[in-house]
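Quick question: what would this complex look like in 3D?
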Amino acid sequence: DQQVKQNSPSLSVQEGRISILNCDYTNSMFDYFLWYKKYPAEGPTFLISISSIKDKNEDGRFTVFLNKSAKHLSLHIVPSQPGDSAVYFCAGIYGGATNKLIFGTGTLLAVQP
Amino acid sequence: SAVISQKPSRDICQRGTSLTIQCQVDSQVTMMFWYRQQPGQSLTLIATANQGSEATYESGFVIDKFPISRPNLTFSTLTVSNMSPEDSSIYLCSVYSGGAYEQYFGPGTRLTVT
């Protein structure tokens, strides 16, 4: 049972344009959603998060949107840079004592110069 | 954010042997976790390493196969026991030290079992 899904395995974008990475979830009990970026041979790096009670969170070039009714979130990167090329994972988390992260399958973003 | 190191960074092991992976954090942290990323797959939580008590394992993972220690608030080990080729994965530790649920990950250990 895949509770967090990223249906696009890859995405290619021109430098300077907007990258939009999408994520769907099935479990309404998630308290927070997080986005991570992963380069080859490195661990995932935390990017940005959003509480389930918010619909938008922005940090520099990164903005995450949450649509609870659609159980959908998206990460917008504007403007995209070649250094953004990586695998992006979204994750949902149950709060409380467990702090258990449930990851999606990832989207490989390629930003073309 | 915490600085996390893992040893070894990679290893190639024979079927039937065991490998212990170390995770060291530069500061005391509340919670430590172990994840696995199989080839082409997402990250899956193996267990939560509890300081001073037995680890809490997720469904599908058992202590006999993945024994975990956490002797203090900055260090943990994961052992992959009696390995088979299906255990070939990247193993990652992560930490939570407070804040809005974000966890910080080590660089991972790439394990290949032949």
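Answer marked as accepted. Chain B touches chain A through 24 residues (CB under 8 Å).
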